[in-house]
Design goal:
The protein has helices at about 5-25, 65-70, 155-160, 245; strands at about 25-40, 45-50, 55-60, 75-80, 85-90, 105-110, 110-130, 130, 140-145, 150-155, 165, 170, 180-185, 195, 200-210, 210-220, 230, 235-245, 255-260, 270-275, 275-280, 285-290, 290-295. By secondary structure, it is mainly beta. The protein folds into three domains: about 25-110, RNA Polymerase Alpha Subunit, Chain A, domain 2 (Beta Complex), CATH 2.170.120; about 120-210, Beta Complex (RNA Polymerase Alpha Subunit, Chain A, domain 2); about 210-295, RNA Polymerase Alpha Subunit, Chain A, domain 2.
Length: about 300
């Protein structure tokens, strides 16, 4: 029996080889998910909708090759070199799947894609600030500006061509009174657009509200050490724009001053001199009545 061991070993090897050949040639089917890889994309073309990220492929072939395919999972190459604006139907085709010639593609799902695409364009557009804030009842909006005032927008031609400006997301201005407030605001961009820069500064200036008031002021002669000088009338009416917080002050009139300033060397007699008004900060003189006074200088 030991003398025939070579023949027995040879028979076992032949049996194994036959088994491998039979099982390797056995046809089987499997379903493989393959990622979709875009090739030939045009730099000025944007796919807006319809792009698939994977496909399901049913494949038939020898068991050994099918097993290797399941382990390798090749990608499907989707050629977009001929894509045009609008809708384009692109079928998934077996020749774009890198398979051995011994494997057969039975089915591809989905059978294809319908892509919506458009040309990429750029435009310089003004920025429209959107903001909220309340500094208080005594203040009002002076001005609103944006820095930079324009941004460069990039996106589908159909979308970009319809735009007149780009709004910001709502910026909250924590105002507490008069002055300029600066806040950062992101642009409120549609999903298909990009911009450079993507955020801007919104500058909001609040001014104090003012009201127009008439005040009666006594007229002083300056310098006060000057003797023998009289004025007529002894008081004038002034109308001034006064900040609201100051307008509520009971001693408002005391913060104004009306005066005449006779020049040195003025001869005795009667003269017409302009009345001058000293105003508190934030006030604007609108009218003085009368504008000139009669100044009498007595002989010494």
């Amino acid at each position: 029996m030991l003398r025939n061991w070579q023949y027995r070993l040879m028979a076992l090897a032949l049996a194994l080889a036959c088994w491998y050949i039979v099982t390797g040639r056995e046809k089987v089917q499997t379903v493989v998910e393959m990622p979709v890889e875009v090739v030939g994309a045009q730099p000025d073309m944007l796919v807006l909708d319809g792009l698939a990220d994977k496909i399901t492929v049913r494949v038939r072939g020898p068991r050994a090759l099918v097993r290797r395919l399941e382990e390798r999972r090749p990608a499907y190459s989707l050629d977009l070199s001929h894509l045009e604006p609008g809708q384009t139907n692109i079928p998934f085709e077996a020749e774009h799947i890198p398979l051995s010639m011994a494997l057969e593609v039975v089915d591809i799902a989905p059978p294809g894609v319908t892509l919506t695409a458009d040309r990429l364009v750029e435009r310089e557009l003004p920025v429209r600030p959107v903001w909220t804030g309340d500094p208080g009842k005594d203040y009002e909006l002076g001005s609103v500006s944006v820095s930079p005032p324009t941004v460069r927008v990039r996106g589908p031609r159909a979308v970009v061509s319809e735009l007149k400006d780009i709004a910001t997301r709502e910026a909250v201005v924590n105002a507490t009174g008069q002055g300029e407030y600066v806040v950062r605001a992101d642009l409120d961009l549609p999903r298909t657009l990009s911009a450079d820069p993507q955020a801007v500064r919104v500058l909001v200036d609040f001014a104090v509200k003012r009201k127009s008031l008439w005040l009666k002021l006594p007229v002083k002669v300056l310098p006060e050490a000057m003797q023998g000088v009289g004025v007529s009338p002894s008081a004038v009416q002034v109308r001034a724009l006064v900040p609201l917080p100051l307008a509520r002050d009971k001693d408002l009139a005391a913060q104004f001053m009306a005066y005449v300033l006779p020049p040195s060397g003025l001869e005795p007699g009667t003269h017409q001199l302009p009345v001058r008004i000293k105003l508190p900060d934030g006030c604007t003189l609108e009218k003085t009545a009368p504008e000139t006074l009669e100044v009498r200088i007595k002989k010494k």
